[in-house]
Amino acid sequence: MNGLEKSLLNDFQRDFPLSKTPFADIASGLEVDEAEVLKGLSNLQAQGAVSRVGPVFQTDRIGASTLVAMAVPDERLEEVAELVNAYPETNHNYEREHRFNLWFVLTASTEKQLRDVLADIERRSGIEPLVLPMVEAYHIDLGFPLQWA
Amino acid sequence: MGLSARELTLVAAIQAGLPLVSRPYAAIGTKIGMSEGEVIERLSWWLANGTLKRMGVVVRHRELGYHANAMVVWDIPDDQVQAVGRRMGEQPAVTLCYQRPRRLPDWPYNLFCMIHGRDRDVVRGHVDTLVRQCRLEGVSHEVLFSNRRFKQRGARCADTGGRSQGSMFDGVQSTVVAS
């Protein structure tokens, strides 16, 4: 990874320019061409290091959202994970090492839509979900400081 | 909650990320019949009022060598959870810190935090530091390391399209990575 890519990864996780030409503005700060910035970000996205350049919404402000856990028998984990992934309301879905071994976040436009998806998942999987909506956030998301090994 | 239909259209158009072009806000606006100026103005307002947590590059931890990720869950007395949560949220190793409801008898924990590290020992070290810094000796907690990632992407709550997400094995947005 070159110096430009490291800077693009680490220095623009927040305070991304809200100007008409944000990439040109980043480029002029780094003393490179806009084309190099666009190419660098495009490469990082292709490699999977960057998931997107854009907004991180406070999900409860744009709709209804909750963390959900399920205790899935090991032999059914992939099947149930795939069932959960198929909903467009699912944005993160991880296996974790615990009796509750499937953890995912659902985000919907309304509370009703969220409840409907939860009921649907329970009916189709036969497993009762543990519904754990946020009560309060104690951390301000400033991005993730990277340390280069 | 409380966004207008017009605002939700903008959320839907932008939540998968900006196009990597010279005038990305103009490109987003063109798709939904909004001027470049209005797109920028609404995003600025959302940043100011907390609807947007941040705007910028969203990284994938695992691809950058942060292979260990743990959700640490704590059973904190109700009258202390706010104070402990605030202290915990300020610790440099913590990337998220939320209070959530207990679900007794299955789930006794009411405070959740996320810790990333290059390997599990690093993460365990961070947990030990948290216990000391937040005076949590003797507090019941569990460390849930993540194993496979079945899906990671931004929220798509304003989607109006069909259920096009395919199997967990296709595409960048639903890769499976063993840690």
Helix/sheet category of chain A: alpha+beta
Whole-number tally of structural domains of chain B: 2
**Backbone shape of chain B:** elongated
Strand content of chain B: 15-25%
**Unreliable stretches covering 5 or more consecutive residues of chain B:** 157-179
Give me the CATH architecture of the largest domain in chain B, please.
Answer: 2-Layer Sandwich
Helical amount of chain A: 40-55%
Cα-atom Rg of chain A, whole angstroms? 19 Å
Ends distance of chain A: 12 Å
Quantity of strands of chain A, as a count: 6
Number of strands of chain B: 5
Number of helices of chain B: 5
The structural class of chain B is alpha+beta
User: Mean pLDDT of chain B, nearest integer?
Assistant: 85
Q: Would you summarize the structure shown here?
A:
With 149 residues, chain A is an alpha+beta fold.
What does the model show?
The complex is a heterodimer of chains A (149) and B (179). Chain A is an alpha+beta fold and 149 residues long. Chain A has two domains: 3-47; 59-132, Alpha-Beta Plaits. In chain A, 40% of the residues lie in helices and 23% in strands. In chain A, strands 3-4-2-5 form a four-stranded antiparallel β-sheet. In chain A, a hairpin with a 5-residue loop joins strand 3 (90-96) and strand 4. The longest helix of chain A has 15 residues, at 111-125. Chain A starts with a helix and ends in a 12-residue tail after the last strand. Chain B has 179 residues and is of the alpha+beta class. Chain B has two domains: 5-49; 62-145, Alpha-Beta Plaits. Helices cover 31% and strands 22% of the residues of chain B. Chain B is built from five helices and five strands. Chain B has helices at residues 5-14, 24-32, 36-49, 81-89, 120-133; strands at residues 52-59, 68-74, 94-99, 111-117, 141-152. In chain B, strands 3-4-2-5 form a four-stranded antiparallel β-sheet. In chain B, helix 1 (5-14) crosses helix 2 (24-32) and helix 2 (24-32) packs across helix 3 (36-49). Chain B is elongated, with a radius of gyration of 20 Å. Chains A and B meet through helix 2, helix 3, strand 1, helix 4 and strand 2 of A and helix 1, helix 2, helix 3, strand 1 and helix 4 of B.
